[in-house]
Amino acid sequence: ISANVYITEAWLTNYNGIYRANVVLDQLEKNGSIITDATLRKRLEAEAKFLRATYYFDLVRWFGKVPVITAPVSVADAITIPRSPVTDVYTLIISDLQFAAENLLEVNAAVDKGRATKYSAKGLLALVHMTRSGPTYNIEGPGLGLNEWSQAITLLNSIIDSKKFSFLPSYTNIFSYANENNAEVIFDIQYITGSSPVLGSTFAWLLVPDAYFQSKGKAVQGGLTIRPVAETLMNSFETGDVRKPFSIQPGYVYNGVSEPRSFFVKYVDLTKVPTNRLDWPINFIAQRYTDILMLKAECILHGASGTQAEVDAIVNQVRTRAGLTTPVSDVTLPQLMAERQKEFVAEGLRWHDLVRSGLVETVIPAWIATEDLQKQIQPFQKNYIIYPIPQSEIDVKGGIYTQNSGY
């Protein structure tokens, strides 16, 4: 498994981003005086540090201990740098995000849309504090068992109190191709179509089988087979929940052959399929306002300042938008996480939610028992909460890395 291409990609892609951020920071230090606007220099530094923190947060959540590199280094030097303790990785992440929160703009000009803002830095920093507060599982992973829920909720409240963002009344409109950069979006990855070089996205079709596009008279996209949605998730949606039909396609028929299994189509607009499969025009929302509200509810349930009534109000606001008319009360942490699963389905948050909340130890074994009909999945182990270090990295580093336990 340590040779898995996706694991290797998770490592290399983030370190490529870190290298580029470090180059920018290095050049600002050496040659920044050519930028006469001191505020702009600070903003550019803050943007680079925000991105570096984003990449390191990905790495620490996936791999635990990783090398901390804060300047451009040669290949020869890079292979001599050992992995740093998780606490040291977090020290850099928090420092970078605090600097970003202090020096980024509250709102960017239209020409700078897509750049990080003060609030995207605060939102990520809040999630860092919450992740550090999760259980350790007795592994060297992202959870440190700290009690930083109050630090997190202070940051979340500052985003809410800013009134710069709002809760859209329509769930589907959040992801509309005609409504990008809407009031829900705190930070997103910008894509455009029809440019040269190609600057579009591919994520829209990653979980969609090609035969589905063919059944709709569209060109194949990625040559992927079906990634079926778990029946436990399908069955968790209540009647009338608009998030289910919008996010999930319940099978299809192509060339007379029926495919009954469901799959995610949350980001697919069949009227917008590009001629180049690498050139989809839809942005990827990395932070949105509903997440900020639900993270606040999570902090309250962990003892941060707030009331059960506030938690219930947040969850019911989300449910009402989803078309559910029956209110809930006395929402617990497992119930909140179950609601987050449906709200953020196919947005890449579920695994980290389970790890941060401690529910991964019960939810994943139950999921395996229900869904693994062919008995292909290894039994759950705490060590599997983080990835193995890519074998290629261990080999090239000449023994200075020790593989994560369990692999």
Can you tell me about this structure?
This protein has about 400 residues and is mostly helical. It contains 15 helices and six strands. It has helices spanning about 5-30, 40-65, 75-80, 85-105, 120-130, 150-160, 210-215, 230-235, 245, 290-300, 310-320, 335-345, 350-355, 360-370, 390-395, and strands at about 185-190, 250, 250-255, 255-260, 265, 285-290. The strands form three sheets. Strands 1-6 form a two-stranded antiparallel sheet. A hairpin with a 2-residue loop joins strand 3 (about 250-255) and strand 4 (about 255-260). Helix 1 packs antiparallel against helix 2.
Largest sheet, described in full?
2 strands, antiparallel
Mean pLDDT over the residues: 96
Assembly type of the chains comes to single chain
Radius of gyration: 22 Å
| Count of runs of 4 or more consecutive helical residues | 15
Low-confidence stretches: none
